[in-house]
Automatic annotation (TrEMBL):
<dbReference type="GO" id="GO:0016740">
    <property type="term" value="F:transferase activity"/>
</dbReference>
<dbReference type="Pfam" id="PF13692">
    <property type="entry name" value="Glyco_trans_1_4"/>
</dbReference>
<keyword id="KW-0808">Transferase</keyword>
<dbReference type="InterPro" id="IPR001173">
    <property type="entry name" value="Glyco_trans_2-like"/>
</dbReference>
<dbReference type="InterPro" id="IPR029044">
    <property type="entry name" value="Nucleotide-diphossugar_trans"/>
</dbReference>
<feature type="domain" description="Glycosyltransferase 2-like">
    <location>
        <begin position="181"/>
        <end position="346"/>
    </location>
</feature>
<dbReference type="Pfam" id="PF00535">
    <property type="entry name" value="Glycos_transf_2"/>
</dbReference>
<protein>
    <submittedName>
        <fullName>GT2 family glycosyltransferase</fullName>
    </submittedName>
</protein>
Length: 823
């Protein structure tokens, strides 16, 4: 529930942004200010929200505000300040800033219209008329000062408030069968431990136990532990230091997973759940690390690299933007910091915990992860598990540096042989960041069994998911299979657009590097930064390959060590010729040939062409190009409902803009459906699934089409409906929607064009027609003839198994990435 700010008696000031209407030339939207309630308390949280994107601000110390209000006998929390850099996607955003009161109520502080990355064509006047509606609330009188990110005083103040209140107690849940054992070793810095405890209580939602070892703390730590219930804790009479203390504490664990946690860590929502999910999702995963971010918002670590000399590098360290694409994908790493590290307890116990030779601390986490690798297991970095780390909060920095150097020599001596196979210390961080790259240093015999195949850059319009149509389901299959086969995959979407969290989750590509936001204008810069990095560049669709072809002519040095593959996906000229014909523009044969030849000749800039069918491959072969066919990969999963249990027709496809899908469904609605309603006397529905524009819904809904939009699980609709329709009148390539429907055991009525593209026989694997009357007759016949329905269903299933065999698809994909050594 959101309440208006004016009813709450609070004091606040939004210093940045200073205006209700903001135009940004980049994606960084900076927010800072201060807030406290009528009692002087700072907000529990400040969040910046734009649609589904939510950013939580970092607290700041603002002694200037505290002093300003001291004269009014108001005790203001010095940590009343806040700031955050928000990474907004391109577009026009309605941004709101909210504060969470200690009572648990959210109140709105301000509203802003933010235009990000838009061209000069955006409708400025239309937006300016709405500025008054979205304008900020009046600003209080206090002046702004530079942000202060050092908040140790606030942490101590917060702890003392808790300890001095006899009514307050921290209560952790007691679980008889925990899934997770959280192990913390602490000495002093009770204020940090208190914040860590608070984050565990707030953000760990699965069954867990908390084990805390107190290394003879001399501050308020014993008092804090005394006021904490539901934990396993013990106090060492002397300071055992970190390593030995953790080993001792872990002996009390009984859950299958151990979470090693520093006392200066603050968890974030879902961070622990994401680590557990990763551990359970990937075979042979023994440890999972997280993204470590400092309280000031800079990146501490996104997985770490061990060089051949035993030295280590935290990938991305000190980057002010921890949300960059290169830090946001799951990957195999040499090791992750044990500041927050999830480990299988069974393996931890087999190793005997940390190697005691590294006591008191440092290099024990590197050694642990290399030991797990040596046992045949993997260590993964999971960016969705983001935590805040004060870093070196328990020791002076100079002491830490000395300890690290001392233990490096011990580490080097223990792992000398293995380190010879590690990344060379040549500064090539991009190559070293992925553990699989180490296979390039293996002997030729060992390389054959290595999982690493090389690095590949894939260019396509946008981040795909299975409900988009337009060849994107095939794109997902290619990307996922490349990663599974051992390739390091970077996906570069050429269109700059906003992606919701749901969209990215539906893409199922968390182990693929997604370079979102770069677009075609920055492609040259990107290839310059990663010159000689990729073994292959795989470019889908003709309009994207045009950009690459221009760069090949302009900067051939970018591609001297890289094979360029052009994935034609479809010969667009053939589709355009058909579209013109429907519009009444009949081209001469010479004009058709010129259009097709112009498109085909672009393939001269590729080392190899990929076609989706043998028919389209012939066009390229006739021009003398090296062509491989890569169609579709589909696992047949026939639905169980009988003919009698089903009803209605189903259409699936992308309807977000004008194209073959909107044309086909519109034609069906206007010209086929009236005939069909006369032929079938029982009630039936025509369901349309897929992204769709509001205008298209308004056009066809009155005609009897029921639009469902995007759905997370399409299988129930293939189970429910009786006939699939594919009334496509112009297209190129091959229609995956028909393959998909047939794989579910749903018979199809399609246009003759699609039947020809599939090389399927009408009356055997599907029914096909072009005129409205004939199409309606096919639909009626298949809808009411149970024996015909069963015949078409079985024939189509067999055809899909033959045409879309996943094993053959994999073999074809590997084949097109295999080149003779002399090429």
């Amino acid at each position: 529930m959101i309440f208006p700010v004016r009813s709450q008696g609070v004091h606040y000031f939004i210093e940045k942004p200073a205006r209700p209407f903001i135009y940004l030339k980049n994606s960084k939207f900076y927010v800072c200010g201060w807030f406290f309630d009528a009692e002087g308390k700072a907000a529990k949280q400040i969040k910046v929200q734009s649609k589904k994107d939510v950013f939580f601000c970092h607290p700041m110390e603002r002694t200037d505000i505290q002093k300003k209000y001291a004269s009014a006998d108001l005790s203001v929390d010095p940590m009343c300040g806040f700031e955050r850099f928000c990474d907004l996607s391109r577009g026009i955003k309605f941004v709101q800033i909210f504060a969470l009161l200690s009572s648990g109520l959210w109140i709105e502080l301000s509203r802003h219209l933010v235009v990000v990355f838009k061209s000069k064509r955006w409708r400025k006047k239309r937006i300016e008329k709405k500025i008054d509606v979205f304008s900020s609330f009046p600003k209080p009188e206090t002046p702004s000062v530079s942000p202060i990110t050092q908040n140790s005083q606030w942490l101590k103040h917060s702890l003392l408030l808790f300890l001095n209140n006899p009514k307050t107690t921290l209560r952790f849940p007691v679980c008889s069968s925990p899934l997770l054992s959280i192990v913390i070793s602490t000495r002093n810095r009770a204020e940090l431990l208190y914040q860590c405890f608070q984050s565990i209580l707030a953000y760990v939602g699965l069954p867990y136990e908390l084990i805390v070892a107190d290394n003879a703390s001399t501050d308020e730590t014993p008092l804090l532990l005394a006021k904490t219930e539901g934990i396993k804790t013990f106090r060492n009479d002397t300071d055992l230091e970190y390593l030995l203390s953790v080993n001792k504490a872990a002996l009390l664990a009984k859950a299958p997973y151990l979470l090693l946690l520093n006392n200066d860590i603050i968890l974030s929502p879902q961070s622990v759940e994401q680590m557990i999910r990763t551990m359970e999702s990937y075979p042979r995963c023994a440890a999972v690390g997280c993204k470590l971010v400092r309280p000031d918002g800079t990146l501490q670590e996104a997985g770490s690299i061990v060089w051949a000399d035993g030295s280590a590098l935290a990938y991305g360290r000190n980057d002010p933007d921890p949300m960059k694409s290169e830090y946001n994908f799951v990957r195999e790493v040499d090791y992750c910091s044990a500041a927050c590290l999830l480990v299988r307890r069974e393996l931890w116990e087999k190793l005997g915990g940390y190697d005691p030779q590294y006591a008191p601390a440092y290099y024990e986490d590197s050694d642990l992860c290399l030991s797990l690798w040596a046992m045949g297991y993997k260590v993964l970095y999971q960016p969705a598990a983001l935590v805040f780390h004060y870093e070196f909060g328990s020791r002076p920095l100079e002491t830490v540096k000395a300890m690290i150097e001392k233990n490096r020599w011990k580490f080097l001596e223990k792992w000398k042989q293995q380190l010879q196979l590690m990344h060379r210390d040549d500064g090539d961080v991009l190559k070293a960041r992925d553990k699989r790259h180490q296979s390039v240093y293996l002997a030729e015999k060992e390389k054959k069994s290595s999982s690493f195949k090389g690095r590949i850059l894939v260019l396509d319009d946008c981040v795909p998911h299975f409900m988009m149509g337009k060849g994107f389901p095939r794109a997902i299959t290619i990307l996922q299979l490349l990663e599974q086969l051992g390739y390091f995959v970077t996906f570069y979407p050429m269109l700059s657009q906003e992606y919701s969290k749901k969209h990215l989750e539906m893409a199922f590509m968390e182990k693929i590097e997604l370079m979102i936001g770069w677009g075609p204008k920055r492609l040259e810069d990107f290839l310059q930064e990663r010159k000689d990095y990729y073994d292959f560049i795989f470019v889908s669709r003709i309009h994207n390959f045009l950009h690459v072809a221009k760069l090949i002519k302009k900067r051939p040095d970018f591609f001297s060590k890289t094979k360029v593959l052009y994935d034609a996906e479809a010969i667009v000229a053939r589709r355009e010729i058909l579209k013109k014909s429907l519009e009444g523009l009949t081209l001469k044969e010479k004009e058709k040939k010129e259009l097709i030849d112009k498109e085909l000749l672009l393939a001269q800039y590729a080392h190899r062409v990929v076609a989706v069918s043998k028919e389209e491959a012939q066009y390229f072969l006739q021009k003398g190009f090296d062509v491989h066919v890569l169609g579709h990969s589909i696992h047949c999963k026939p639905t169980e409902s009988s003919f009698e249990q089903r009803s209605g027709f189903l259409f699936v496809g992308y309807m977000g803009e004008e194209g073959p899908n909107t044309d086909g469904l519109s034609w069906f609605s206007h010209y086929v459906l009236p005939h069909l309603k006369k032929k079938i006397h029982s009630n039936f529905e025509v369901l349309a699934i897929g992204q769709v524009s509001e205008d298209f819904v308004e056009q066809l809904s009155p005609l009897g089409i029921k639009f469902l939009g995007l759905v997370e699980d399409i299988q129930p609709f293939f189970e429910k409906c009786r006939v699939f329709i594919a009334p496509t009148r112009y297209a190129a390539g091959i229609p995956m929607k028909v393959h998909e429907a047939a794989s579910y055991g749903l018979p199809v009525v399609a246009s003759m064009l699609l039947a020809k593209q599939l090389a399927w026989t009408p009356g055997e694997e599907l029914l096909a027609a072009d005129s409205p009357e004939d199409f309606a007759a096919c639909c009626e016949k298949l809808y009411q003839d149970a024996s015909l329905w069963k015949k078409i269903r079985e024939s189509a299933l067999n055809k899909v198994k033959l045409d879309c065999d996943p094993k053959r698809f994999e073999e074809n994909l590997l084949s097109l990435l295999t080149f003779p050594r002399n090429q």
